[in-house]
Amino acid sequence: MGSSAISPCAACKFLRRKCTSECLFAPYFPPDQPQKFANVHKIFGASNITKLLHDLPVHQREDAVNSLAYEADARVKDPVYGCVGAISVLQQQVAHLQAELAIAHAEIQRLHNAAANSGSIPVSSKDLLELGAGGAGGSYDTAFTVSDDALRQQLSEQMSSQMHNITQQMGSQLAAQL
Ligand SMILES: [Zn+2]
Questions:
Q1: 68 in a domain, yes or no?
Q2: CA 26 to ligand 1 center in whole angstroms
Q3: How far is the CA of 100 from the centre of ligand 1 (A)?
């Protein structure tokens, strides 16, 4: 029954009030994370958080608090843009990746077309020019097949290592902001 053995949640400790078993904040602001409540309170205000939590069904409250904590933390770190700053950096990265992906797709398509043409049509100087081979000597088919596969392999390795790097960057940026 009595609450003497319960240590107050971070919110009640911050607000210097008694934490009861019905405390609205206790499930989401454990005593070992004082900064979480301090930031949320500084940015949104305890009474606004109370109203918001009251209006939400219980199963959505944890997500709401985590979102508030993320937004408040971002606002503390970047008072002008807050989490919008992080979102726009990530959106720029996504746009950049999409552009690179489109270029890679176009290049793969170009290689497919070139390979298809080289299979059925006798090699002419026009084909060689279009393929960028420039009419250099040597066996055209062999040279093209080798460079086609090599180029595709190279492109695919480049794309996957770039995707890997950027995924890691995005992950560590998010982790740093949480
Ligand atoms: Zn409490």
A1: yes
A2: 4
A3: 50
